[in-house]
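Problem: given the chain below (262 residues), write out its structure.
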Amino acid sequence: MKKINVIKIGGSTIEEWGKSLNQIKKIVDLGESILLVHGGGKTVSEWSSKLGIRPEFVKGLRKTDPQTLEVACAILSGLVNSKLVVKLESIGVSSIGISGVSGKLLLSKPKSKDLGLVGDVEKVNHDILYNLVKSNFVPVISPLGYNDKSRDIDSEGILNINADSVASKIAIETKAKKVIYQTDVDGVIDQNGRVIPKMTLSQSKELLNSGIITGGMIPKLQSCIDALDSGVDHGHIINANDDSLINLFKGNKIGTHIIRES
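Solution.
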């Protein structure tokens, strides 16, 4: 089977995903195999607010208590995942929505006590993904994990996972060709406010440790580093709000490209 491309879809809300999905249609038509990982943090926050739940963040990651987890499950694996699948199907892309809990796709463990029901992926049941891709489906994966070591499966069996790290782990365990992160800027920005077009893995680590990178770019760059450290050849951080995705697959130099070798 040809190598897979893992895309962490960008855009903070469901309404902003239309352009990205049209590009994914074009990429599939080019004959590429795609695994799609989505988040939906902004939508989770909006619904939490409607329900009177105030979001808490620790080092950029959402703290998840049992009440917040219920909202995350409903929004990520329900509303967001289903709407993405419907939108893809409506433009001719055969797709299947799947949670990290389904078939124990993402076996996970709690990340830290400070974050509550937030997890790290320990293992990916990649045969599920291979079988879907072989059947010409685009898997649409919501970032929830299955905790099979929980003391109380009802309250601790599902873990909320950062979608950037999910994309990285899936890329590693499927031996992906590319892992691509879409965001709302043109790439990784240096201290002078300019996009860095290309970095080696060692340069990326130095930049991350320098403190120049802040906010939501930290988990994206860290996830790229983790993937390349484990054998993925190419990491890309690109803008979700233009035609960067399809242009990248056509061979154009887009956003920030991270490589293992110099």
